[in-house]
Write a structure and sequence with these properties.
Length: 299
């Protein structure tokens, strides 16, 4: 009887082990299928590079997803609000971002970057090289080091390729701008997808606008302008907007005490015949860089 009992126990152990192994294999198979399905959906849907100008209050943050699936976050706003807004445009299973571009270390542009570095695996961080003597800046650098991300400082004009789309960094380029400031040290770049172009300006003001007009006027005619410095009077000079002549002018802005955006700047942009889009009024702006430059609110 004891022998029969031992045999039954052994059989039971074998059966349970078999079921456990089957379940593990099945879970792996389902995860692989889910990943495969996600990639297939991305390939099927991403027919155009997508720009998402996030509604993060008074600050700046744009999530870019290229046709080949690569992703960039440009600036992070001032706090963890950026994570909530990224949740509106990213798959909840997506825990990585290929590039984080920090245009300059003003709090309303990089204040939420530590939260982003904590939440996501960031492969590359691109920065303007400006140093600040403050605790938060040092903590920001510490998090980049912990992340083990590739850290690159833009010093000269250079270009990156994203499956045929390109980003052309045109500033900093080693040149000297009259009246240099934190804002006029911003990374400025042109994103080109097919025959469509978008210009990202950080907090660029008139002095840097004049510098770029003198050096790159043939490159500055674009379809989409991320308006500099939240539509401030100190940016978007008449000469600059005439040359850029955007179809869409996107102003990242929230409740503030600075009078942003300036009504004068809004009127100046409207007279170009394009459309002025505010992140605070639309609760986020999505633009596809397709033939029609399809625009919608972020849902």
């Amino acid at each position: 009887m004891k022998k029969v009992f031992i045999i039954l126990v052994i059989i039971l152990v074998i059966v349970l082990t078999g079921l456990f192994v089957f379940k593990i294999k099945n879970n792996f198979s389902e995860e692989a299928k889910a990943k495969e399905t996600k990639e297939e959906v991305k390939i099927a849907i991403m027919t155009a590079t997508e720009l998402n100008f996030l509604d993060i209050g008074q600050g700046d943050s744009t999530f870019i997803e290229f046709k080949n699936g690569e992703q960039i976050l440009v600036d992070c706003g001032k706090d963890a609000k950026v994570l909530e807004e990224l949740g509106r445009v990213m798959d909840f299973r997506d825990k990585s971002i290929d590039y984080l571009i920090v245009t300059h270390p003003d709090n309303d542009h990089y204040g939420g970057c530590i939260d982003v570095l904590e939440r996501f695996e960031i492969a590359n961080v691109i920065y303007n090289g400006q140093q600040k003597n403050e605790d938060f800046y040092n903590e920001f650098l510490d998090y980049i080091e912990k992340e083990n991300a590739n850290f690159k400082i833009i010093k000269t004009e250079e270009k990156l390729d994203f499956g045929g789309d390109t980003i052309d960094f045109i500033f900093p380029d080693g040149g000297v701008v009259s009246n240099p400031s934190d804002n006029n040290s911003s990374i400025v770049f042109i994103l080109e997808s097919g025959d469509k172009k978008a210009l990202f300006t950080g907090d660029m003001e008139e002095e840097l606008e004049a510098y770029l007009i003198a050096k790159f006027s043939d490159k500055l005619d674009v379809d989409i302008l991320k308006v500099g410095h939240h539509g401030s009077d100190s940016s978007s000079s008449q000469n600059f907007v005439d040359i850029v002549s955007p179809f869409y002018s996107v102003i990242p802005v929230g409740k503030n005490k600075y009078g942003h955006p300036s009504l004068r700047v809004i009127r100046r942009l409207e007279r170009l015949g394009g459309e002025v889009l505010r992140t605070d009024l639309l609760h986020g702006v999505k633009i596809l860089m397709d033939e029609n430059l399809s625009m919608s609110q972020i849902q």
